[in-house]
Specification:
This protein has 14 helices and 21 strands. It is of the alpha/beta class. The protein has 2 domains: 122 residues, Rossmann fold (3-Layer(aba) Sandwich); 312 residues, Rossmann fold, CATH 3.40.50.12780.
Length: 464
């Protein structure tokens, strides 16, 4: 299989249905298929072949989506690069991989040992003139994308995902998306991160309409976007949930028309989980996972009031168990490490960044389709996943709210303010004395996203 098959087929089945909406631009599924195939054809003319690695250092817009799908269509491997990162970080990533080329913004300057191709007017003209690529590779076990953790504890951890593994990640995620009709999904997560890429691919596989929105925004802007575009589905992170709480009325849902609102990146506090149903939407879901594993578990709306200290029930495609330090399975209600097994678990890339721990032994050479690979789950704050299994539910040992004593009993994970990178670009960090960083300037400015505790008040995020 080629992952793009399930997306491009909508170009034949519903060619006039909107696929991507960004500002005043609307691209139908027929137009998306044509763009992807011509872009793949142009990349092939530039010398990209199946198995080559192609860097993507682009903004979170329609061009990024098209470029990603074109790389996958060719059978090449997509290597995401954060366009807001410092030049030194971009150069380090570019030098760590054997990239055939990097697709970049016209104004970008990356010290890379390979060609950097700007997506400028000349590029778009060449794509229009290119022949549509035919004969896509169909090896589902071929590499599709390099996945990276958030890097909040130091160097990111890199793993390699195949077409089948990305497909399985998408299928797991779609378990909690209502199947009743086409969704209008508001995309606010950066494409650089695995969750942002996953939700885009999953909703395109369904034939949904994707509304592309800048990944830096205020709570009020999010609500306006939902209402203006008649959004029915969304995915946000805890910092955004808390900002939405700040403008919500006590007993009137702020987003009543959403059919599903998903939160991921780090579990919320139990009281926050209960408040989401009352203050945001009765269709709130919480999802828990990791870049190398994909979605692991979820809490549905009916679970939020009954089991708020849990991170939910495991998805069907992931086998999760709790083990002790010697990797021995533990019984119900005993705390230990979370261990995952499944066909969607990806392979570590040793020597690049920081490879994820795997056990038992070195599994890099195993046949994942037959053996299954076990891996220590890690949450977004970088702490090792520790918890208990109780009646089919996963519970987590909490870290406590800032200023609170660490609880001795097993409870929910509560990473606190710094559970993710909030997306404050360097420009905003330079102006921390301001009452409110200039969101408009931050959206279009290159510079390293910084971890900044207490910056949730800025009402914006970038990294998960």
């Amino acid at each position: 299989m080629n992952l793009t098959d399930s997306i491009l087929r909508h170009g034949r089945m519903q060619p006039n249905v909107p696929a991507l909406i960004e500002g005043e631009r609307t691209i139908s599924y027929g137009g998306l298929a044509d763009l992807v195939l011509r872009t793949a054809g142009h990349l092939a003319a530039l010398g990209v072949e199946p198995g080559d690695q192609v860097g993507l250092c682009l903004k979170d817009d329609w061009q990024h989506v098209v470029a990603l799908l074109a790389v996958l269509r060719l059978g090449a491997t997509a290597v995401q690069m954060d366009w807001r990162a410092r030049p030194a970080e971009k150069a380090r990533i570019a030098g760590a991989f054997a990239l055939e080329l990097i697709l970049v913004l016209p104004e970008s300057d990356i010290a890379a040992p390979c060609p950097c191709i700007a997506l400028d007017e000349a590029w778009h003209g060449a794509v229009v003139a290119a022949d549509a690529f035919t004969g896509a590779p169909q090896d589902g076990n071929a590499p599709a994308a390099v996945l990276a953790s958030s890097g909040t504890t130091g160097l990111p951890k890199f793993t390699l995902a195949t077409h089948v593994q990305l497909y399985l990640h998408a299928v797991a995620y779609l378990e909690i998306v209502p199947p009743t009709r086409r969704q209008r999904f508001l995309v606010t997560l950066p494409h650089y991160f695995s969750a942002g890429r996953l939700v885009c691919l999953a909703h395109l596989m369904r034939g949904d309409g994707l509304i592309l929105h800048p990944s830096l925004f205020t709570a009020a802007e999010y609500v306006r976007a939902v209402n203006r575009h008649k959004v029915t589905a969304g995915f946000i992170v805890p910092s955004v949930v808390r900002q939405l709480f700040a403008i919500a009325e006590p007993d009137k849902p702020l987003l009543p028309d959403l059919e599903v609102l998903i939160c991921g990146g780090a579990p919320l506090f139990p009281d926050e989980k209960r408040d989401t149903l009352r203050k945001l939407t009765p269709n709130f879901h919480e999802i828990y996972g990791a870049a190398a594993i994909g979605p692991m578990s979820a809490l549905r709306p009916q679970d939020l009031t009954e089991r708020p200290t849990s991170v939910g029930r495991p998805f069907l495609l992931v086998d999760v168990e709790v083990v002790d330090d010697d990797e021995r399975p533990l019984g119900p209600d005993l705390p230990g490490r979370l261990r995952c097994r499944g066909l969607g678990l990806t392979s570590p890339l040793a020597g690049i960044g920081e490879a994820p721990d795997r056990f038992p032994g070195d599994c890099a050479g195993r046949d994942q389709q037959q053996q299954g690979i076990e891996q220590r789950g890690q949450d977004r704050s970088g702490t090792e996943a520790v918890g208990v299994a109780s009646g089919g539910w996963l519970l987590r040992r909490g870290m406590g709210r800032p200023g609170q004593q660490q609880p001795q009993h097993v409870a929910e994970i509560v990473p606190g303010v710094g559970e993710q990178r909030h997306g404050i670009c360097q420009h905003a960090v330079d102006h921390l004395g301001d009452d409110e960083p200039n969101v408009e300037e931050c959206r279009d400015r290159e510079g390293a996203p910084e971890i900044r505790r207490g910056m949730a008040g800025a009402g914006m995020f970038m990294r998960m």
